[in-house]
Amino acid sequence: MPLEALTADLTPAGLHYLLIHYDVPFPDHASWAITFDGFERPLRLTLGDLRARPRTSQPVTLECAGNGRALFESRPLSQPWLLEAVGTAEWSGTPLAPLLRDAGVPAATVDIAFAGLDRGIEGGEEAGYERGLPLAEAMREDVMIAFEMNGQPLLPQHGAPARLIVPGWYGMAHVKWLDRITALAEPFEGYQNTVSYRLREQQEEPGEALTRMRVRSLMAPPGLPTFPERDRMLAPGPTTLQGRAWSGSAPIERVEVSLDGAATWSDAELQPAPAAHAWQRWTFDWTATPGMHDLACRATDATGATQPMAADPNLGGYANNAVHRVRVTVTAGS
Amino acid sequence: MPLEALTADLTPAGLHYLLIHYDVPFPDHASWAITFDGFERPLRLTLGDLRARPRTSQPVTLECAGNGRALFESRPLSQPWLLEAVGTAEWSGTPLAPLLRDAGVPAATVDIAFAGLDRGIEGGEEAGYERGLPLAEAMREDVMIAFEMNGQPLLPQHGAPARLIVPGWYGMAHVKWLDRITALAEPFEGYQNTVSYRLREQQEEPGEALTRMRVRSLMAPPGLPTFPERDRMLAPGPTTLQGRAWSGSAPIERVEVSLDGAATWSDAELQPAPAAHAWQRWTFDWTATPGMHDLACRATDATGATQPMAADPNLGGYANNAVHRVRVTVTAGS
After folding, report:
1. How many angstroms separate the CA atoms of A99 and A181, rounded?
2. CB-based contact B14 A155, cutoff 8 Å
């Protein structure tokens, strides 16, 4: 998502970030169905079945766990995201929990596994993309199977015909191109939970699975970009800095802006959240004076978590929620 | 556009390539209008005015002039495209020529200039994106002002509310976020025609302006990708290779496939063009045997132009239509 789209409440399709592990699958929507495995009753749901169930809609901010990876000093080998791996869309579909109850969750269930149709070779083995979610998370009221994004049927690259939405979690949990939902009496041991998407410093450590998005704020770059360097040039005078802030754990309580390279900070105006897991807009009035300025923003959520100046490096380059710094040159004026 | 989308006749929004010089503008559609300058009669057209005029639709293949840039050995400093900067969409709008006639084209006109709302700093100067087109090209029957893509209103990043479509030309001609159309009695001398988008080996040479897309074919990568290397792994046995071919100058007459590193070639099956400037599908049946294979494809158009093994290097890294080579490892089977 180009960062000028931080000015929009909802990110248009095609500007929302995408992280696609393998090729985009193009399933035939007429024959597609989700199969439920390991439940008390067999269940197979077509797109028509999903659309006939109770409908819900909510704006949700999705961020890749690797967002900011390319800003770590020792850059891990994976998708080299700077800060654009985020977006907020209105997702519509049907809640997951009633579906699981209809299928009958066996008493011993601890995890629900979600498998997509996307297939590739990972860690030397052929596999489909598959993620496990603890039962308590899967039963949350706001977790849904979505078949529309911003009022339109899902586009192929967003998981058509239907995908999982787990508000508050990093993107890896929102499995696209849903094919199979499995109730497990043991913790899910698939590659995407036990090898990938873990916070650790060494391959030998078990580390910790990534779950909820860390607190973060981003600033829409002020002024005009140069091509192709994309430096920012701004006319002098009054201007309003703006951006968005979010956290997977709690509402944002405070956004601060620095105009002097993160030496001193002032409070920005913060708007309330439009929904529990959608980003919050912030603004900050500034009278820009000629010269080079190192701007920055940082957010704090209701748990007290705040963005660090530098995030702890880790093997996968995940969860880099460091303060966002933006250099802008204010021109001498005309 | 991820190359697996070569399997689709029309590229879904969000998979179609984008080359955006500056920030994406988000104009207010209610107050937006195109202004005609330098014509015999003043004309200002709102989106409602455009929609009230005769409507036309056509599938058109768009390719960035820089597609393939990153495959030149000496890589120029600009957008490092591999081969994904292409897409084919159904564009709907109103033909341009009747609009120009309504405005009254002065007899001395040689070029029509098209200015977008996107602004940035290029070559040290603040400027909006602007391109000139020779009058004869602007008056072609199939040149249009498009306000829909694949049956939906244009998305912001595709030039909403309306953009130019010049079938057959590289992407730089299809000006997005149209703001102003100007009749010029002298050749257009703006940056995007006279400095950028020229074929030349040295900055001092005037070089030649880029116009129509060179003949090219691409292959959808067979088999499954590895993550994150994106090597291709294929099961042994019969398989159908497939892809698309296009040229801005003439229909494609022939597509050939090589299974041995471009040493020998065989004809592929070629489908007719669905429209004058939309890509053509090709297929090639192959029985894959275990081992590593260097596949390739090349197209020839009705002017006799064919893809070279290596394109001539040039300062901007443009128009690299070299033969597409795809390495695939066929596994031993199971």
Report:
1. 11
2. yes
Q: Of A6, A9, A24, which to mutate for an interface test with B (greatest number of B Cβ within 10 Å)?
A: A24
Using the Cβ of A26 and the Cβ atoms of chain B, whether some distance falls under 8 Å is answered with yes
pLDDT (0 to 100) of residue A27: 97
CA distance A158 to A169: 16
State whether residue A242 sits within 8 Å of chain B by CB.
no
Q: Which of B78, B120, B227 sits opposite A122 (nearest CB)?
A: B227
The residue-averaged pLDDT of B160-186 equals 98
pLDDT tens digits for range B85-142: 999 999 999 999 999 999 999 999 999 999 999 999 987 889 999 999 999 999 999 9
- Asked if A48 and A160 sit in the same domain, the reply is yes
DSSP assignment string, A98-124: HHHHHH---TT--EEEEEEEEEEEETT
Band (A245; pLDDT cuts 50, 70, 90): very high
Domain carrying residue B311: 216-330
Using alpha carbons, select from B171, B248, B120 the residue that is nearest to residue B1: B171
- Alpha-carbon torsion, ordered A14, A20, A26, A27, to 10 deg: -120
Q: Note whether A110 contacts B: Cβ–Cβ < 8 A.
A: no
Q: Residue A333 pLDDT > 70, yes or no?
A: no
Strand partners of residue A242: A283
- Tally of domains within chain B: 2
Tell me how far apart the alpha carbons of residues B290 and B231 are, in angstroms, rounded to a whole number.
15
Whole-Å CA distances, A251 to A63, A171, A177:
16, 19, 30
Please give, rounded to a whole number of angstroms, the shortest distance from the CA of A226 to a CA of chain B: 4
Residues B107 and B205 placed together within one structural domain of the fold: yes
Q: Using the predicted structure, report yes or no on whether residue A325 has a pLDDT greater than 60.
A: yes
In the predicted structure, residue A75 carries a pLDDT above the cut 90: no
Q: Does A261 touch chain B (CB under 8 A)?
A: no
| Interchain proximity B23–A2, CB inside 8 Å | yes
Q: What is the pTM assigned to this prediction?
A: 0.93
Asked if A120 and B152 come within 8 Å (Cβ–Cβ), the reply is no
Interface touch B156/A7, C-beta < 8 Å = no
Per-residue pLDDT tens for A286-314?
A: 999 999 999 999 999 999 999 999 999 99
A86 lies in the same domain as A132? yes
